[in-house]
What we know:
Elements: H1 3-18, E1 34-48, E2 51-56, E3 58-60, E4 63-65, E5 70-79, E6 82-89, E7 92-98, H2 102-110, E8 122-124, H3 126-129, H4 143-154, H5 159-164, E9 169-179, E10 184-197, E11 202-215, E12 221-234, E13 237-249, H6 276-279, E14 283-285
Antiparallel strand pairs: 1-2, 1-5, 1-13, 3-4, 5-6, 6-7, 8-14, 9-10, 10-11, 11-12, 12-13
Amino acid sequence: xxxxIQILLPMVVMxxxxxxxxxxxxxxxxxxxxxxxDVVESNWxxxxxxxxxxxxxxxxxxxxxxxxxxxxxxxxxxDASGVDWEIQLGIDMDxxxxxxxxxxxxxxxxxxxxxFTDDSxxxxxxxxxxxxxxxxxxxxxxxxxxxxxxYEMANTDIETDLSDEDPAINIDQAGGIFDNDTSIAVFxxxxxxxxxxxxxxxxxxxxxxxxxxxxxSDGHMKGYYHMIDYSGTLAGVDFNYNLEQKVExxxxxxxxVAAGILxxxxxxxxxxxxxxxxxxxxxxxxxx
Length: 288
């Protein structure tokens, strides 16, 4: 079994346990609701072996867009299974949907950097990388379900479980906070780990931060922030992955990333570097 899959198993189990209500979703938005968002930050700097890509902007429909671009998300359908939406940027349009099962993907997202510990050599698709990171399209959530998931994630110690999956992995910090006391709920996650495996010439370390805010009255996204900064070697290949992206609803500002939410995080400084979920696709395993 590949290490990435092993590492994800505890998180998937947690998702199933914590998300028992995921099939009974309730959404507060209505058909015709339109929400406007600003891409406030989006940049990347990635190196895999001899190949690299860096820049500022974000990918929408395979076109590099500028930071500062504004887009609209309109609700096109709502039922107990989820929300369908249409995203509009100028004359360009795309469609998608959100459901309570996004909670499963969310928990995988929280440990996604650990997938870089796979033994297979990596290559960089510079053509795709140069388009920039895509958006994380979690525009709508079921308030009750995601409040439960975020609460459990912020109050459960997964550090030991993750480290036990592979002794080469050292989880220096793993956990988060969930501020649910006002009309806007904010969840924040930090992961700081090292991976050292001399037998496959791998030595990787870094930090991942994810922040997400949603309106408790109807579950629409107020904003999100991703930061990932990992560097080292994987299977003898030089590997640096620095990404940052912030998207906010027009008129809303995310709170500053917390320092010291866990013992040892006092040192944390946000490096100006962007989005993991969209940008992750630029890294591909080398085919044998």
